[in-house]
């Protein structure tokens, strides 16, 4: 039996699942918080919107890891709310009144999810254009693009870091490294979770832990179907979301290919198609309960590489925990106790691990040919443009901003095109299983 399919003991399932939740919690709650604030939701409604995103992310993760028929990659893959859709959604909100905005968003997202389900088997056949030269470049960009998020957490979302923020991030970083180095077996694999706990304990006497998340959160709550309005279908919004979902599919494909390398189970076209179908179905289902578009989370791919806990059942446990957090918002408040600087300190290791995984994949490509060095250099440079200067494409049409404004998608497109034009025959095609998608 492959390690991916083995079921660890219950304590390891729970601890490993909690670690995955801790790694992706901020990424799941940030998009609904930004969108709900833009729409003008009350604190109670905003809490429900965040809970809905946690609930649907859990369902998506369970579908992705456990699988139902041809839905789910059956890999240790965490699904959550994609940041790629936030900017187009805010544009839609700006064009409509607060009463109709979310209905239009959900209508466009519902169609976008359905399109992903239909396009999955065709999109999965593009894996032949993702040899190690390309996937290594994209995975490296995924890690590099996430590092500014960790830095922002250390600064507590301010322009400059404070002394206390640097202290908390530094202690958390050292704790994660020390636990990983000096502990053995299972405990070394949950070094990130232990580091987050150590950083939070230090933050408590410094007054950096906000306990209001526990006192204000309701004990139980879940959004009823279409609580924030029935879907409304507008052509412009649907086109915008369809473009976003193409980017999401490319990012999910890169994450699944990266995860296949990490767990030593090459990702076949069928696996990619099943994974993308799960993304699309989860996205469509999320609109019913008040969630948003779902995608694979790159930071959790890095966590799998860091902890070496490759069982998909560990990640399924994180999906079950997310469902519970969505049903009981007060328990979500416990996870939210972790201060941002503490998350940032752990994020430096976590997101850096994603970039290292990309470098390891690049090592499988042949750099004896100068052309391959040039291809990687150019693709990395193009991918770093929106990371270095986020407003670089601000004067371009919205469709161009959506695609090139993501360093991952821009770098991915550049790597694929440059490899097709200038790569040798050995690097132009990726050998994947030809099992029907």
Automatic annotation (TrEMBL):
Q: How does it sit in the membrane?
A: Multi-pass membrane protein
Q: Name the residues that span the membrane.
A: 21-42, 48-69, 76-95, 101-123, 130-155, 161-179, 186-206, 226-248, 313-336, 342-363, 375-393, 399-422
Record keywords, A-Z: Cell membrane, Membrane, Transmembrane, Transmembrane helix, Transport
Q: State the superkingdom.
A: Bacteria
Q: Name one GO molecular function term.
A: xanthine transmembrane transporter activity
Q: Which Pfam families match?
A: Xan_ur_permease
The entry sums up its family as follows:
Belongs to the nucleobase:cation symporter-2 (NCS2) (TC 2.A.40) family.
Instruction: Give the protein's recorded name.
Output: Purine permease
Broad class of where this protein is predominantly found: membrane
**Where in or outside the cell?**
Cell membrane
């Amino acid at each position: 039996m492959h390690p991916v399919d083995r079921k660890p003991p219950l304590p390891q399932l729970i601890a490993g699942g909690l670690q995955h939740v801790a790694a992706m919690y901020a990424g799941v709650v940030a998009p609904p918080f930004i969108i709900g604030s833009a729409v003008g939701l009350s604190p109670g409604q905003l809490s429900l919107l965040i809970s809905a995103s946690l609930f649907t992310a859990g369902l998506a993760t369970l579908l992705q890891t456990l699988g139902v028929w041809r839905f789910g990659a059956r890999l240790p893959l965490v699904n959550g709310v994609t940041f790629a859709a936030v900017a187009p959604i805010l544009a839609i909100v700006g064009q409509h009144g607060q009463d109709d905005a979310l209905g239009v968003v959900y209508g466009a997202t519902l169609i976008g999810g359905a399109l992903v389900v239909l396009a999955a088997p065709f999109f999965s056949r593009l894996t032949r254009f993702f040899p190690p030269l390309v996937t290594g470049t994209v995975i490296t960009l995924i890690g590099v693009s996430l590092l500014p998020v960790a830095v922002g957490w250390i600064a507590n979302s301010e322009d400059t870091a404070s002394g206390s923020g640097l202290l908390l991030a530094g202690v958390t970083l050292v704790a994660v490294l020390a636990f990983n180095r000096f502990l053995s077996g299972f405990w070394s694999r949950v070094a990130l979770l232990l580091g987050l706990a150590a950083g939070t304990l230090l933050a408590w006497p410094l007054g950096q832990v906000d306990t209001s998340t526990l006192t204000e959160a309701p004990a139980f709550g879940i959004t009823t179907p279409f609580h924030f309005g029935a879907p409304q279908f507008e052509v412009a919004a649907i086109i915008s979301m369809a473009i976003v979902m193409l980017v999401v599919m490319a990012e999910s494909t890169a994450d699944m290919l990266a995860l296949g390398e990490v767990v030593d189970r090459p990702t076949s076209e069928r696996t990619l198609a099943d994974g993308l179908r799960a993304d699309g179905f989860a996205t469509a289902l999320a609109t019913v309960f008040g969630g948003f578009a779902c995608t694979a989370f790159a930071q959790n791919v890095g966590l799998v590489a860091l902890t070496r806990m490759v069982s998909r059942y560990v990640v399924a446990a994180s999906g079950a925990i997310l469902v519970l957090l969505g049903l009981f918002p007060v328990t979500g408040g416990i996870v939210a106790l972790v201060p941002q600087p503490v998350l940032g300190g752990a994020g430096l290791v976590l997101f850096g691990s994603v970039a290292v995984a990309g470098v390891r994949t690049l090592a499988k490509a042949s750099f004896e040919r100068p052309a391959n060095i040039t291809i990687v250099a150019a693709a990395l440079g193009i991918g770093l443009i929106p990371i270095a200067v986020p407003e670089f494409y601000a004067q371009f049409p919205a469709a161009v901003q959506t695609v090139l404004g993501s360093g991952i998608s821009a770098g991915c497109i550049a790597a694929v095109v440059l490899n097709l034009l200038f790569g040798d025959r050995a690097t132009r095609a990726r050998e994947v299983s030809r099992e029907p998608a």
